[in-house]
Amino acid sequence: MRISNMLSTNSLEMLSGDSRVSQDSYFLLSVLTSFYNAEDESNLLLPKLPTLPKNYSNTSKIFSEENSDEIIKLLGDVRLNILVLGGSSGFIELYAYGMFKIARVTGIAGTCLALCLSSDLKSLSVVTEVSTSGASEVSYFQLETNLLYSFLPEVTRMARKFTHISALLQYINLSLTCMCEAWEEILMQMDSRLTKFVQEKNTTTSVQDEFMHLLLWGKASAELQTLLMNQLTVKGLKKLGQSIESSYSSIQKLVISHLQSGSESLLYHLSELKGMASWKQKYEPLGLDAAGIEDAITAVGSFILKANELLQVIDSSMKNFKAFFRWLYVAMLRMTEDHVLPELNKVMTQKDITFVAEFLTEHFNEAPDLYNRKGKYFNVERVGQYLKDEDDDLVSPPNTEGNQWYDFLQNSSYLKESPLLFPYYPRKSLHFVKRRMENIIDQCLQKPADVIGKSMNQAICIPLYRDTRSEDSARRLFKFPFLWNNKTSNLHYLLFTILEDSLYKMCILRRHTDISQSVSNGLIAIKFGSFTYATTEKVRRSIYSCLDAQFYDDETVTVVLKDTIGREGRDRLLVQLPLSLVYNSEDSAEYQFTGTYSTRLDEQCSAIPTRTLHFEKHWRLLESMKAQYVAGNGFRKVSCVLSSNLRHVRVFEMDIDDEWELDESSDEEEEASNKPVKIKEEVLSESEAENQQAGVAALAPEIVIKVEKLDPELDS
């Protein structure tokens, strides 16, 4: 998969008017301007999201205390940055802040080899490869992205909202994951023990009657006593009670502090997004739909209602279990004739008896239908059903009988269908309502991606060359072609090679980011002539084939060359190619492409102007290494060279002055010079090597990076 990252500054729309405009018009203009340019105030109006506990899932560390500041910084970034993704699936996707999809371009033929979105958002350059009959045809496309350019402030504001919403959905999902982890399987022991008791008992008395008899008369049947003393046990009952209290308390805290906070923040951002969609002049062209956002708001409201219902169930269960276990614990101690603590050995009041009796009546009814569905006769534990990711209805939904408000809504057809009330799903789990909410929000936010994607039209198509080389997927990641966007001059550059006379000649194609504008010297080929050693002034002349090249910065290209007649171990060169040598205004008219862009470029090599360059500096002989690939970073002042077998790496510091002497030895000299050079070659440390190995191993398991100590004599 090819990835391109673009960072553009968020420009603000300028509003101006005639000098004769009235004072009221100026006032209105000022109000609109301040509203339109207003910063996101969610950090002022919403409380800070609590960090997720560390003792749960590893995924919760995404929102841990260490990372929360970085996420807040990302969500508060006023600049729009877009991650562009493309592969072999026939489409290209654009993600705002690398998190939320804001565009999807379909109909891309072949596999994307390179992608580059211009910093002014006017065009997207794409290089694709279509395989036919054992060979691949590589082409260059330029897509118009005028909708992104024309509505940059609106896209930026909308993208920030989308990113907030995407992050909050992830936060809610992780909170629910922590809640599921807080719920323990031990809580199901009561259900399983009672089910086994039903299957093994010989009497016709129901389980509920057995416990009622123990409650009223203080005596248990022999079978119930066996269940309590041999299977449940006093120690097991105490542990079960503690587990239920601990688990329910943890879930309750997660619902109140995390799930509800995230849901309320999500509701706020969706409401703001709905307000943006109501400004149709600005946001309707981007596909923002107010009706769809309203559906999303309603779905979030239903999720909040279900979370509140879970809180009520937890609160009720904690009270019921506490009273039930206290009574049963004392009863079991008396069966064993153990000492009962004075604080527990209290006479039960009529209220206490009634409370436990109601609990037994509600929770200890045998349900044959439930056994057919879940393999158990009882559902004493009511919280776990809300956390199961199932489409089935709740085993024990809340009892709505006697609820006056619920009955009132059910009897009123107007209120039942009112958009002012959030729909309620009493028979569905929290997971089900959450998935429904996510699906509705995804559908709501998918429309802008479709609208923006369809607005990107192919404006230019240039077939480049036919490639018969077959390389594995790992090497394709490092291979030509290479795209670059010059933010200063608003130009797209494409580096690629064309096979001519068994040599790969580097070509540079450049196009203006604005489709309507042209650029001189749009296509030029580079021939590397000679290289002069700085100290000895000896000239190295040979025939060179370009292996790889990448832009080091806007003004320089880093190139790896192969000397086709040089001896092994001294046949690779690292070159810094200044573009000022390529594009010379004095003789630019002599280097104009005379062919046509509608025909494949490798079929008209003679029409491509070729400039031969000679170097007296800015080059280095790469000894004892079959260098094949290069990556440069002008901001970090480094270049990295990778061997053809993907096992050897050399890193060079490139921050040097104009006297860049890369190699002072000649081909006639077997012994290296002892004089130092001004480029610094680094050897990766063991920890860095391990990181490199892990990264490449994840890409291709058979690749192992071998880091070698360089011979000091070869580093001269």
Account of the protein in words:
One of its GO terms (cellular component) is nuclear periphery. Keywords: Cell cycle, Cell division, Mitosis, Ubl conjugation pathway. InterPro entries: APC4, APC4_C, APC4_long_dom. Residues 140-338 form the Anaphase-promoting complex subunit 4 long domain. The chain has 716 residues and is of the alpha+beta class. Among the domains are: 150-448; 480-653, no CATH class. The strands form 5 sheets. Strands 9, 10, 11, 12, 13 and 17 form a 6-stranded mixed sheet that branches. Strands 1-2-3-4 form a 4-stranded antiparallel sheet. Strands 5-6-7-8 form a 4-stranded antiparallel sheet, with no helix packed on it. A hairpin with a 4-residue loop joins strand 2 and strand 3 (91-96). Helix 5 (152-182) packs antiparallel against helix 16, helix 6 (189-200) runs antiparallel to helix 8 (222-232) and helix 7 runs antiparallel to helix 12 (350-363).
What is the radius of gyration?
A: 36 Å
Q: Name the helicity range.
A: 25-40%
Question: What is the terminal-to-terminal distance?
Answer: 39 Å
Strand count: 22
* Most strands sheet: 6 strands, mixed
Proportion of strand residues:
15-25%
| Structural class by secondary-structure content | alpha+beta
Taking pLDDT < 50 over at least 5 consecutive residues as the criterion, the unreliable ranges are 5-22, 24-29, 658-716
Tell me, briefly, the overall form.
Answer: elongated
- The number of helical elements comes to 19
Mean pLDDT: 77
Protein name: Anaphase-promoting complex subunit 4
InterPro entries: APC4, APC4_C, APC4_long_dom
Keywords: Cell cycle, Cell division, Mitosis, Ubl conjugation pathway
Domain Anaphase-promoting complex subunit 4 long: 140-338
